[in-house]
């Protein structure tokens, strides 16, 4: 890991991260107080740009309205390491009671993207100071709209985010993992995502004369019930699949059969084969029920993410550096989850991995799940993520001399 002219003792990386921590906590609290939803991260983008310019990074061309591509260019030949963070918040009203709580009602960083940004921004600050001692390039991807389909990863890819990149590093906070620990997993770690909107179209009428109408509410209820039978009876129980409807609306009065019912759903699986089959199974089921009831339907694909598949060699690099910094006993295995992440879109095209960063501290009440209005983190975790990203980046760049 070391070279003759680079100071790479673990104490130096940890000390650099500890020196910057108070500033990173300040950044994180700013992001937390001013959360912005997907594709609306205008103030967040401006804040990031201001600091990135101060650090002396080069801003790369980007045609999206929010988000940033920035790069440290050492002027010496070498590989390109990219580090990605998401920047958007969620439509949740915060209930933590902290002094730096969200100032925007109905908006909250309830998934830790504020921590991700502060960690990656601090990593950029430290590496920028070491520019003369490094080789190659270090690219920073500040990606909008991770939380909202169809997501911001593919637009960033289309804008050259991973062009020429040798490896890609990503992180995600984990409220079930104690601060000071990370977790990794080779191969499939997170599920594929098929997000869809469904409209059941009937014929409106009077509630007392259902035979003169086609009831989309009853039809929608039958559709929901039957789609659950796909997972129960048409899929190998050993292949995890979940199909969930998170939103349904239709009708305005108790005595009126409406014209249509609107549903929003998501399907998740860890199987690449089922990822291809699920949309067809849903369409077949909806079509059959609607035909039987005399209804029509529209099924619209909103998002389509592949499974998140971590590269084993990149995981070994991450683990080696974290063990060097904090000890082998601070690395835990990461369980598979049916949660989705559009980081998976990058990993289809470039070698990379996403590690989990522990942020749990029960004394601070930082133990609530992602997307909870009570979600909190132990901010001390930022220094662990920063030291790791710095060390791993330098290790890879130096290994290619």
What does this entry look like structurally?
The chain has 401 residues and is α/β, with parallel strands linked by helices. The chain has two domains: 272 residues, Zn peptidases (Aminopeptidase); 114 residues, Alpha-Beta Plaits (2-Layer Sandwich), CATH 3.30.70.360. It has nine helices and 16 strands. Strands 1-2-4-3-5-16-6-15 form an eight-stranded mixed sheet. The protein has a four-stranded antiparallel sheet with strand order 10-12-8-13, with helices on one face. Helix 1 packs across helix 3 and helix 5 runs antiparallel to helix 6.
Produce a short descriptive summary.
With 401 residues, the protein is an alpha/beta fold. It has helices at 10-33, 42-55, 113-129, 153-158, 216-233, 272-293, 312-326, 343-347, 381-399; strands spanning 58-59, 68-73, 80-86, 137-143, 167-178, 182-184, 187-190, 192-201, 205-206, 241-249, 256-257, 260-269, 296-305, 308-310, 331-333, 352-360.
List the helices and strands and how they pair.
Layout: H1 10-33, H2 42-55, E1 58-59, E2 68-73, E3 80-86, H3 113-129, E4 137-143, H4 153-158, E5 167-178, E6 182-184, E7 187-190, E8 192-201, E9 205-206, H5 216-233, E10 241-249, E11 256-257, E12 260-269, H6 272-293, E13 296-305, E14 308-310, H7 312-326, E15 331-333, H8 343-347, E16 352-360, H9 381-399
Helix pairs in contact: 1-3, 1-9, 2-3, 3-9, 5-6, 7-9
């Amino acid at each position: 890991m070391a070279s003759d002219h680079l100071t790479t003792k673990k104490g130096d990386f940890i000390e650099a991260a500890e020196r910057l921590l108070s500033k990173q906590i300040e950044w994180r609290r700013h992001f937390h107080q001013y959360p912005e939803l997907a594709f609306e991260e205008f103030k967040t983008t401006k804040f990031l740009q201001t600091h990135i310019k101060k650090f002396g990074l080069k801003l790369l061309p980007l045609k999206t309205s929010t988000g940033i591509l920035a790069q440290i260019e050492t002027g010496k030949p070498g590989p390109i390491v990219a580090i990605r963070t998401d920047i958007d918040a969620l439509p949740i009203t915060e209930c933590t009671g902290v002094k730096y709580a969200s100032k925007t009602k109905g908006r909250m960083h309830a998934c830790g993207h504020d921590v991700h940004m502060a960690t990656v921004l601090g990593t950029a600050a430290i590496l920028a100071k070491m520019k003369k001692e490094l080789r190659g390039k270090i690219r920073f991807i500040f990606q909008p709209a991770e939380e909202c389909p169809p997501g911001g990863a593919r637009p960033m890819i289309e804008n050259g985010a991973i062009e020429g990149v040798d490896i890609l590093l990503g992180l995600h906070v984990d409220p079930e993992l104690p601060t000071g620990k990370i977790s990794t997993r080779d191969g499939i770690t997170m599920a594929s995502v098929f997000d869809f909107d469904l409209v059941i179209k009937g014929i409106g009428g009077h509630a007392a004369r259902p035979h003169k109408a086609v009831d989309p509410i009853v039809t929608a209820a039958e559709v929901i019930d039957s789609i659950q039978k796909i997972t129960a009876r048409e899929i190998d129980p050993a292949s995890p699949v979940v199909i969930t409807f998170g939103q349904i609306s239709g009708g305005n009065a108790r005595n009126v059969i409406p014209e249509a019912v609107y549903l929003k759903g998501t399907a998740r699986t860890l199987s690449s084969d089922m990822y291809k089959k699920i949309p067809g199974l849903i369409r077949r089921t909806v079509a059959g029920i609607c035909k039987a009831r005399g209804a029509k339907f529209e099924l619209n694909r909103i998002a389509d993410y592949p499974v998140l598949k971590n590269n084993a060699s990149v995981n070994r690099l991450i683990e080696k550096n974290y063990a060097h910094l904090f000890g082998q006993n601070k690395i835990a295995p990461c369980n598979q989850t049916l949660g989705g992440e559009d980081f998976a879109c990058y990993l289809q095209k470039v070698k990379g991995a996403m590690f989990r960063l522990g942020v749990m501290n029960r004394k601070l009440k930082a133990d609530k799940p992602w997307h909870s209005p009570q979600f909190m983190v132990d901010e001390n975790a930022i220094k662990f993520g920063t030291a790791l990203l710095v060390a791993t980046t330098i290790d890879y760049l130096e290994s290619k001399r």
